[in-house]
Known about the structure:
8-stranded mixed sheet, 8 strands, alpha/beta, 36% helix, 323 residues
Amino acid sequence: xxxxxxxxxxxxxxxxxxxxxxxxxxxxxxxxREMIAPMREAPMLSVTEEILLEAGIEARxxxxxxHEGDEIVVTVLQSIGRTGTGPGxxxxxxxxxxxxxxxxxxxxxxxxxxxxxxxxxxxxxxxAPEFPDPYPVEDCYAGLVWTAENAASLGIDPDRxxxxxxxxxxxLAAGVALLARDRSGPALCGxxxxxxxxxxRDETVSTVQIDGVGVWDRGSNVTGWDALLGDRRGxxxxxxxxxxxxxxxxxxxxxxxxxxxxAEVFRDEDVAYASTxxxxxxxxxxxxxxxxxxxxxxxxPQAALSRAMIAARNDWVRRIxxx
Length: 323
């Protein structure tokens, strides 16, 4: 850990700080292990039938083999009445490895599904602590394999399969991309890593700065990694697929888009991940949004910074998937 650590942090964007104040009491900065069960019973950022209909999206569930052949569920999303072939979007949801479901954050895919005639597959991977590493990342990889193997029947162009995830889902997306590389698995045309959770070691400046403040602070992060890894957290026994920040070789990966806020716990590990991709000769587009807390665009979608963040993602997706 560097000796330049400081307890001060970058200021929140004023518009986002006001939104954060409004969220006080609804979202605790620190999530403890005891909060996992009640938070699972009251999911946030989920999707209703009305939201689907308004977006022009239809959905169906499919049971597929997960890790070790156990059954898991994926949801297939596409425009109502879709025909033809288009890109595929494989989605791994967020929730710190401990909460959330396949609908968490799925609404962020809707515009891309409609605009590009895409089919999205969102995976219900099993959560820690009941299912520790490697269950989450291996379930996610199994879902990607299923999507690629069924591309023809799904109407997916196998050369345009994009993996997308936010927060823990961003970390899982990065881990799945590494697994696909190392196992010669499905080809990916890109990896969209939204403020990814990728480092279990709790050693960065940003993790010290974001402690007891914002959304998903240092304590929450330790809760999530402890649930996933148990006594292995912070040791050499952690694989690069569970914590992709540990990977030294990030060559041979699909183009990456990485974003985060300057005032969130994942800032430094996300910046370092992009830097390592560049050092390995890879392609990464990195955006660090000044004054942004974790997942701010989901909690304050009308804020100017949120609109800019979403526009940057949309522009990258347009370049990756084409029109």
